[in-house]
Automatic annotation (TrEMBL):
SMART domains xrefs: VIT (SM00609), VWA (SM00327)
InterPro entries for this protein: VIT (IPR013694), VWF_A (IPR002035), vWFA_dom_sf (IPR036465)
Taxonomic source organism: Oncorhynchus tshawytscha (Chinook salmon)
Domain VWFA as annotated: residue spans: 285-466
Domain of life per record: Eukaryota
Protein name listed in UniProt: von Willebrand factor A domain-containing protein 5A-like
Domain VIT: residue ranges: 1-131
Amino acid sequence: MVNCCGLVTVKNKPVPLKSIAVEVSVQGHVATVSSTLQYENQEESPLEAIFVFPLPGEAAVCRFSAKIGQTEVVAEVQEKQKAREQYDDLLSSGQQAFLLEESDESPDVFKLSVGSLPPGEKASISLDYVTELAVQADDGLRLCLPAVLNPRYQPQDSGSGGSALVSSVPTGSVPYSLSLSARVSSLHPICRIESNCPLDPLNYLNTEKTQATVSLAAGHQFDRDVELLVYYLNPCLHKKLLNTSVSVCLSLSLPGSLMGDPVVMLSLYPEFPNDVMSSMTSLGEFLFVVDRSGSMSCPMHNESVAQDRIGSARDTLLLLLKSLPMGCYFNIIGFGSRYESFFTKSVEYSQKTMDEALQKVKAMRADLGGTEILQPLKHIYSQPCLPDQPRQLFLFTDGEVGNTKEVLDLVKANAGSHRCFSFGIGEGASSALISGVAKQGGGHSQFITGQDRMQPKVMQSLRFALQPAVVNISVKWNVPKGVSVTSLSPPIRVLFQGQRALLYAQLTGKVRALPSAVMSVNIVYVNVQRALERLTVHRLGARTLIRSLEMEERQGDGKKKGVQEKVVELSVQSGVSSVFTAFIAVHKVDGEAVQGPMLRRQVPTPSVCGYAKQQRRCKEMILCRYYVNNLDCPATASNPVKDPLLQLISLQKASGSWVLEAALAEVLGKTEEEVAKPKPAQVDQEVWATVLALVWLYGFKMEAQEEWQFLAMKAVSWIQAQKAASVSECVKAGNILLGCQVQKDTLGL
């Protein structure tokens, strides 16, 4: 059982891991990542080095090898318990062995054991994995290379030893280095590659700009996950209801098995017409589930002044509450070691309930202990759904939980009653948890890292929740006689505008001479083209099928016969990791066995939320609690100066209007008298105030439009419902007052 993440190094002992080098190969929507870890035993006794580290939750580990001197040994996949026993036996007899295993609790945590490394010996460990790239709001493709592994909290009744308050080294203090280089290839030109870490200049390899390389700048510190964002030119050339693309990966192995037959990867990417996207639902039960565990007091990033995670969550809840449509229902649940609901049950959205919720949001602190997501989710699912109010669940967490698979199983079991949108806050959030609950809950996941603002990403998900989606997706394969198709992916229940999904399928039969095929996805037809991609698609397809079978086995409590055996068989055949298997490499040394008592050294993993940082944050929080209702509260990392945009948003009524008051004038940079004086005589004060707020938003905050677009739509609807005269005159006077040139049509009036 791998449940000890990011262990601290034994005091005053050399760390056996010296460096990590990563090579990334991106091909369109998928990536192959190869990591090489250099170990050296500088002690006088043989040692075993243990390294617990994160990988992307969707990754398929497909190769593991070790090189000692000039000898390379490639690991084989075995049933996990058998591999562990063989590893222990080899170490007991003084032999060298290497073991790589996936955590029993979470598929994004791995444990690497380097055994019986003699004094002065060096070892080079290599592991490869393939993974899909996630589509972002701006159509960029995101690859995250996790470097930070925060301690994972184990619920008291989990049987895993209770709270896992495990020590770890602070980010930036890790005694090993990281280098990274990436090669990107695509059918479309590469516009740019961005990162949250400094990069060397992008180097194009051809005139078409379809191939390029880039490297991480020298001197990278382990203070954050490494994120690459790849932007292609015109990834979707034709706007259709459902854009599709297909890759067929051939195999050089003998046919008759998953790794021997061709495997298809089908990409679905919906694009709706503008008239469809402009329609918004006003129905729904919106449940905002917010992590209030102690780790939420950590800063959002590592710069000198950074807002804490719970503070960013408070600002986001303000924005969400102001953006909800009239007629919906909502509730807010905070969780830690226990959970607290704002209301005993979901309440109808009104001025009264919004004001009550906002007062409680202001008092929210990271004061509920550990991170136990399971119990609040069970409570939510035990409540009956409201008639004609589709349930939409928004989960905000830093993802530091140890029972990830239990949570995913629970979400999947209730997938028919809701959609789940998830947000991973800060460095080290579990990708397996954040991506997994969204996938199982038919929603969408977002990660907020570095200096990302939480608000625009959350509002994108709110747009998904309010706008139409593709549902009841079916795939019909029209292939020649003698060819059959077996799906490797579970059915897709829902797909949103701007969200991509990948499906995998195995082709069997007379496929060797298959020149081309035509497949239909609902009403859209696409051509299939061949592409030899070194079994990348096969491995992703195998990973998809393995994950589905693992969940099937867990939900059957191990009672469904043959599922675990099928996973082991598929894992061994494909060479892709699973929870029931492990990679083991054996270095058979001629001559005498390694002599002397063996020492164990645990390699540290960086953690953002170190104890010292939490202590510093606590001092700031104590200071700010004293000033909690005082506008003169000093600016600290956990209490930054208030954003004028958030101030304006906080003044909006639930109906969408603003009131002409001193606080509004202050945001506009005017006195109350200066704001009131130019109001057209026949215009109501509330209409005038609302027009001014809209002019200010469009005149000064267009770069943040994604954050305020819904509350602006509410404001426009409210003005139109008033059937107010002289709206054009209001817009003209507002422009003169604020020094803007916003057109009435731009406002939607």
